[in-house]
Please model this.
Amino acid sequence: MKKHLLTVLLLTLAFLTCRAQDDAALRSRLSRDSILIGDQIEWTLDLQLAPGEAARISKPGTEPVPGVEALGEMAFDTLSAKNGTTGLRGHVTLTSFDSGSYNLPPLYVLLARADGSVDTLEYAGPHLEVTTIPIDTATFQPYDIKGQIRYPLTFREVIPWAGLALLVAALIWLLVRWIRLRRQNRDFFGKPVVKDPPHIVALRSLEKTRAQKLWQAGKQKQFYTQVTDALRQYIADRYGVAALEQTSAEMFRDLQDKEIDPALTAQLKDLFTTADFVKFAKHTASDTENENAIPTAIRFVNETYMHQIEKEEGN
Model:
């Protein structure tokens, strides 16, 4: 009886020893059993393959358990072969940002034997502790949140803004100077702007229109527009009448009190009447009217100018 009990005890002990060895062989492991929040740790498993065997290892995914993250996929390395066997090591980096205790899930390996059979090996998942930095409550003293640190401006940072300010100031100064000198009838450098007398400007414009031979080319509207515009500018400069903005009737009404020969005024009215018909009523002037247009305008400019000279000399 005693021999029988001893045999049973030995067999039980041998079984438990083999089971413990198998459990130890089929466990994955961590590079250390605890980490601080945000630290990283390696999770690995080892597998030995006999000749003719192949294995496929399950991947833990991006979050093996809630609160633990895998940084990438599990990678596999081939270890050195011994006695005809090949060693494989799978490894993946883990991290966690929540403190606590975590039991990692098991990893499964499909093992294809040389005889064609397939076994499933289960590698138990290890235990992971994620801790925080302990706070000494006896000496800890809370402080208010500090405001944003203001660093002093550097010379390099000030240069662009200073240059921009100088540029804007220079542009403003140039604009103010240009407006003031223009009102004083001076150029940008302060020199008086010498303007040609009104009769010179008008005669030059009329001669330019004559040289273009517009009505001879069938451009009567452009011809009469240039002739009357030259006369309106002359009247505005000579008599101070807003002839450029007025109708022909309004212009002649404002010229009534000017010392102009009535016969000369009548000739000018005929010229403007013909011009208005050509410009606004699609009238075609005769060759005689076209030929007399510029001489009439020149006569009006010269005689009014001479009258002004005689008046000034008489005074």
